[in-house]
Write a sequence for this structure.
């Protein structure tokens, strides 16, 4: 794995190359991973995924689903990627699934608990490495104690998360050395420490001393940590890390938060966010085209339609009340105002869904509980999200990050700015 | 060296829908083409059911890539949600689904009777309360045609008075006679005969005499095709096949015969032998969503633990995208967490049906349909005590005795 930085200001524009078994895999930075559930993009078969543009070169799978079939993988012997029908994929295995809640209070000095479809699995470092030997991932998060996000963790708990994680890391590095199956795998060290600056710094410095291939900023999931604190900690942590190794963060998905992290030295994100948007029947429509003329976007595409309908403002508020997770970056297609909307999900979008179907069709599919709704929305939401990262890289290259930030942050407050999306 | 096909004599009016290319020398099976507004469809053909404007989790592109050139849309479901007027504004069901090939819509009658607690049939039509709110609706022959005209499918079905195949008594005759009258009303109300082909539906339950009377009456009307309705609803198979055979015996040779609701592999093979050309059924797509994969020797219930470590594909001889790439063990694992598994199985099951019909058709063209039938039955029933008695009898009756 080789990391190259291109020296842009405002973020680490660069690339990772030489990834995967054959060394042909690559990932542009800053970038995201392809979120999968048991190795398949949610709702998408191989051929429908192929219709999505900009799919990242590294796929993300969570350990719990694979831990549940450990015995199957052991018998299979040829690794999880091949088992899951993606022998040429570059695979990153994280400890937890970003979408599955992790109840607090179950980790011990020697074990970490994972949560899968069959419930809780308690894991030692040794058991963890057994499973990784059967998975044979290209990258994997070292087992760590990240149980500091509930907001009740104090200094002592934060210290424990660092101590335990370092202890796990040392055990796993040693075990990796003795495992032929894992010689080609890159271990990512998890940086813990809750919301305590000292502990975060200690974790970063100590982890950086170990021969890990990359770093994972853990424990920033959820909403318990104050935003200021979160951003300050992220910046402080990355300042301690070597430039030439990639930095992944878990649990950050909204575009405004992604930009904040990129500015503070983070390279790689997950793509669970478009999946969550899909699951609530919404389509991402936020603009990331900072070349569009802001004055031309006075009456937005959505705005015009809203003005034509009475009480549209109330509708939007009602729906947002209905789903507290809704963000300003999306439109809730189950809403009845879309039942005769003949436009694409997003004007100017070149995805499979927007090229062939309308908001009304997707609305109909959602209202009648048809499986195809998830398929089409996932295709659109993934393509849009991957397009966003591409726009971030372009903005870094063209020194336009400030404009992009302004555009995205404005939408974080006001909702989608939808002038046509030019690509 | 296929026997010279007897082309249907050119009709005075529009081009006939069915072109017979070959006929089995022993049974009543025939292979040909349906010439439909959105392109030619080889037959015998199985039509996947798309219910609400989608082939379940498959995109239109995926369905077409499997070789499907005609599928079903469901008038009742689409007529209530989103409503036919809205679908018309989309350019009909074709535009709505982005489907460039052929579509067939049913009349809405069957769903009404089977899905609704409170539906009431009279000479006017079927009166019912929409399940999702709104005023009471009368689905008359005229209304059904109005909806189907708006949806714009290539083949539309008459509104028939459907009774369950297990019903007996005077209601069966009443429904049959009413269906004939409703056929006339549908023909009269049909606003787009150039673009959409209206098929009649033969009723009469399991009573040979009633069925015969129905056929005699309906074949006097000039419709481009006939469906055999009122069967495949739980009746005894022994009576089922006899009713099918009676129907094909008396329906015109040169018009397509559509057997509604038939989709199990064995039933398809037997009913092709009996002379049917078109079939539809929810079974392959529905069973996929329960984790069941269709194979030439039955089906695999992939949720079952026995497949957890089975690293073979569903069927090594199947060329579908699912079998090319994934093992039974992986599908077993994926079923737990990702709807993609359902789509992969739906893809496979439709591919299975398409392949089966293709093999049937090829064997007829190559004049070896009886051998095909025997091989099929052997693969399916060897080790399970042999083919079911009803299938044996039916095939024997059309000149294909099984060993």
């Amino acid at each position: 794995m080789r990391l190259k930085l291109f020296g842009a200001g405002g973020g680490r524009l660069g690339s990772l190359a030489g990834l995967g078994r054959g060394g042909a895999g690559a990932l542009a930075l800053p970038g995201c991973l392809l979120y999968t559930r048991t190795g398949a993009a949610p709702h998408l078969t191989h051929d429908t995924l192929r219709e999505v543009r900009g799919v990242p070169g590294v796929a993300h799978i969570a350990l719990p689903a694979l831990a549940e079939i450990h015995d199957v993988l052991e018998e299979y012997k040829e690794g999880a990627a091949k088992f899951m029908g993606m022998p040429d994929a570059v695979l990153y295995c994280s400890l937890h699934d970003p979408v599955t809640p992790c109840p607090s209070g179950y980790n011990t000095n020697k074990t970490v608990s994972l949560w899968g479809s069959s419930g809780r699995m308690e894991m030692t470092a040794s058991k963890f490495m057994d499973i990784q030997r059967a998975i044979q991932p290209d990258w994997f998060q070292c087992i760590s104690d990240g149980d500091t996000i509930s907001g009740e963790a104090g200094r002592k708990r934060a210290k424990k998360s660092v101590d335990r994680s370092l202890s796990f890391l040392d055990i796993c590095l040693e075990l990796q050395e003795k495992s032929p199956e894992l010689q080609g795998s890159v271990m990512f060290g998890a940086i813990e420490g809750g919301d305590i600056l000292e502990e975060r710094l200690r974790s970063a410095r100590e982890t950086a001393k170990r021969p890990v291939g990359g770093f994972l900023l853990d424990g920033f999931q959820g909403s318990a940590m104050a935003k200021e604190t979160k951003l300050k900690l992220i910046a402080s942590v990355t300042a301690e890390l070597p430039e030439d190794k990639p930095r992944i963060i878990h649990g950050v998905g909204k575009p405004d938060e992604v930009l904040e992290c990129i500015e503070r030295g983070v390279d790689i994100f997950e793509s669970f966010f478009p999946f969550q948007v899909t699951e609530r029947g919404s389509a991402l429509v936020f603009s990331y085209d900072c070349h569009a003329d802001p004055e031309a976007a006075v009456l937005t595409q959505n705005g015009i339609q809203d003005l034509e309908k009475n009480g549209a403002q109330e509708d939007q508020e009602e729906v947002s009340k209905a789903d507290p997770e809704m963000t300003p970056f999306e439109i809730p297609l189950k809403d009845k105002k879309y039942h005769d909307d003949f436009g694409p999900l997003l004007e100017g979008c070149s995805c499979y869904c927007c090229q062939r179907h309308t908001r009304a069709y997707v609305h109909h599919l959602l209202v009648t509980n048809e499986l195809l709704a998830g398929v089409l929305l996932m295709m659109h939401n993934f393509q849009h999200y991957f397009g966003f990262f591409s726009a971030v890289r372009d903005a870094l290259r063209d020194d336009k990050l400030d404009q992009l930030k302004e555009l995205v942050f404005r939408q974080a407050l006001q909702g989608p700015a939808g002038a046509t999306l030019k690509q | 060296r296929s026997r010279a096909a007897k082309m249907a004599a050119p009709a005075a009016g529009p081009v006939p829908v069915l072109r017979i290319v070959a006929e089995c020398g022993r049974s009543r099976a025939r292979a040909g083409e349906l010439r439909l507004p959105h392109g030619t469809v080889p037959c015998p053909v199985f039509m996947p059911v798309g219910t609400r404007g989608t082939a379940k989790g498959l995109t239109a592109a995926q369905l077409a890539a499997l070789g499907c050139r005609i599928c079903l849309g469901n008038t009742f479901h689409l007529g209530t949600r989103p409503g036919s007027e809205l679908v018309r504004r989309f350019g009909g069901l074709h535009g709505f689904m982005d489907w460039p090939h052929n579509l067939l819509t049913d009349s809405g009658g069957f769903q009404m009777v089977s899905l609704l607690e409170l539906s009431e049939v009279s000479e006017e039509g079927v009166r019912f309360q929409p399940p999702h709110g709104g005023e009471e609706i009368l689905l008359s022959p005229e209304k059904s045609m109005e909806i189907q005209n708006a949806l714009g499918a290539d083949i539309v079905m008459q509104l028939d008075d459907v009774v369950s195949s297990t019903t007996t008594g005077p209601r069966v005759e009443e429904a049959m006679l009413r269906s004939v009258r409703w056929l006339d009303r549908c023909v009269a109300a049909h606003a787009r005969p150039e673009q959409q082909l209206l098929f009649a539906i033969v009723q009469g339950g399991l009573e040979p005499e009633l069925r015969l009377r129905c056929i005699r009456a309906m074949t006097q009307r000039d419709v481009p095709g006939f469906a055999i309705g009122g069967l495949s609803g739980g009746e005894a198979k022994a009576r089922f096949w006899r009713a099918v055979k009676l129907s094909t015996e008396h329906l015109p040779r040169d018009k397509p015969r559509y057997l509604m609701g038939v989709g199990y592999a064995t039933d398809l093979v037997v009913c092709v032998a009996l002379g049917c050309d078109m079939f539809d059924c929810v079974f392959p797509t529905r069973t996929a969503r329960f984790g069941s994969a269709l194979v030439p020797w039955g089906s695999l219930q992939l949720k079952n633990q026995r497949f957890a470590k089975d690293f073979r594909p569903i069927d090594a001889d199947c060329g579908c995208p699912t079998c090319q790439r994934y093992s039974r063990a992986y599908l077993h694992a994926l079923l737990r967490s990702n709807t993609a598994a359902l789509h992969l199985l739906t893809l496979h099951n439709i591919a299975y049906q398409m392949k089966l019909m293709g093999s049937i058709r090829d064997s007829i063209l190559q004049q070896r349909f009886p051998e095909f039938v025997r091989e099929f039955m052997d693969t399916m029933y060897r080790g399970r005590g042999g083919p079911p008695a009803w299938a044996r009898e039916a095939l024997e009756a059309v000149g294909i005795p099984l060993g």
Q: What stands out?
A: The CA atoms of residues 1 and 169 of chain A lie 20 Å apart. The interface with chain B takes residues 37-48, 51, 65, 68-69, 71-72, 75-76, 83-85, 117, 339-340, 342, 352, 356-358, 360-361, 364-365, 367-368, 370-372, 374-376 of chain A (CB under 8 Å). The two ends of chain A are 31 Å apart (CA to CA).
